[in-house]
Amino acid sequence: MKSFFLAIGTFTDGAPYFHAGGRGLGFVEFDPVDGRYTGGVRWVPVFNPSYVIAGGARRVVVVSERYDRAGAVSLVDTGDGAVIWEASSRALATCHSALLPGGRAVAAANYSSGSVVVLGTENGAFVAECTYEGRGAHPERQDMSHPHQCVVSPGGGWLLVPDLGCDAVWAHRIVDGIPDSKAVANRTASGTGPRHLVFHSDGKMVSALGELDGVVHTGRWDEEIGRIDWVADLPTVSGCEPPHASGSAIKAHPCLPVIYAANRSRHDLAVMRVGSGGLPTLVGRIDPGVKVPRDFAVSPDGRWLLVAGQESGGVVVFPLDEQTGLASGPRGDVLDAVSPVCLAWVA
Predict the structure, then answer these.
(1) How far apart are CA 250 and CA 227, in angstroms?
(2) 209 - beta bridge partners?
(3) Of the CATH numbers 1.10.287.1490, 3.90.950.20, 1.10.150.120, 2.130.10.10, which one belongs to the domain with range 4-247?
(4) pTM for this predicted structure
(5) Which of 74, 103, 186, 276 is the most exposed place for a label (fewest CB within 10 A)?
(6) For each successive 10 residues of the chain (347 residues), what is the average pLDDT?
């Protein structure tokens, strides 16, 4: 069986918000037969690679999160680690990105500047910018707009941007591969702090994880008009009142109707089964044995779960039950990495 190729982003400089000490962007082979890393990690010295996505054959798009000046977006060759181009994100705390339909441009979310920048993938040239105004109920965490993710809808017609600061998921219509600056405002409950979202496999339902309330908010997606009709809320963490729930990442199993949501306050993952009506139900938890699970990845074959412990360090591996998606055995292989914050399968 062919091995999978994993990209790992580790924080190199945490000031003023995080402890850090990582080596930048790493690449490693993962053997899906026995769930082990093989060949060692090849590190590329990229500053604070907060998020990594596949950017075409043998390439990844990487965002560099900075707090004292504008961040950066880079295109990196996965073969030799060469930086093909690096461009300014034009704003602070760039934290996430998405490749836009057609592959000609990439959108990157700027958490501390309330904006999304669009750059061309050929050379990083500036294409467009979307900005947001507003605030939420929490005086510190929601003092202004804080876009935290960029996601293209299943139909390819919209760019969705969860905004922690405004309690909203903005939806921009994509025209000729570029998002329009105008946005549909899909408001969440006050104090939600939507951080990340994931579409269900049918493309008709979407679940957003609140960083502040630790709740998975599920709604019906309308591709025609860019609207989310919120229909259900599922708490994934107890004993932590907002804004201390600290939800981090939400992702879907590639083969099963299962969704995972990581909670940094509990240091665990909630496992949810999606029923016939499209609504998730909590069916279990996975304790990865690491502190502050900021990101995780399910292997493309659905057999393995990898979890990155930002504070404790290490990327751990768990076997998954092929019927339930729950952990089916004890923790396996551990990759030695300091301050890992992003995991992505890349070609």
Answers:
(1) 20
(2) 196, 216
(3) 2.130.10.10
(4) 0.97
(5) 276
(6) 94 88 97 96 97 94 96 97 97 98 97 98 98 95 97 98 98 98 97 97 97 96 98 87 86 98 95 96 97 97 98 97 96 96 94
Q: Contact at 8 Å (CB) between 270 and 281?
A: no
- Confidence at residue 166, expressed as pLDDT on a 0 to 100 scale: 98
Taking alpha carbons only, the member of 27, 55, 149 closest to residue 94 is 149
Tokens for 176, please give them: 């000729």
Burial of 16 (0-12, 13-18, 19+ CB in 10 A): exposed
Residue closest to 309 by CA, chosen among 328, 324, 295: 295
Please report the pLDDT score of residue 14 as a whole number.
86
Closest CA to 236 of 217, 220, 215, 256: 215
pLDDT of amino acid 298: 98
Region of 124 please: left (phi>0), alpha (psi -120 to 50) or beta: left
- Stretch (H or E) spanning 283: strand 280-286
For residue 73, the model assigns a pLDDT of 98
Q: Output the DSSP codes for 294-322.
A: EEEEE-TTSSEEEEEETTT--EEEEEB-T
> Tokens standing for 107?
């959108």
In DSSP terms, 116 is beta-bridged to 109, 130
Q: Which two tokens stand for residue 180?
A: 């329009």
For 49, the token pair is 């690679």
Q: What pLDDT shows up at residue 239?
A: 65
Residue with tokens 């050929």: 122
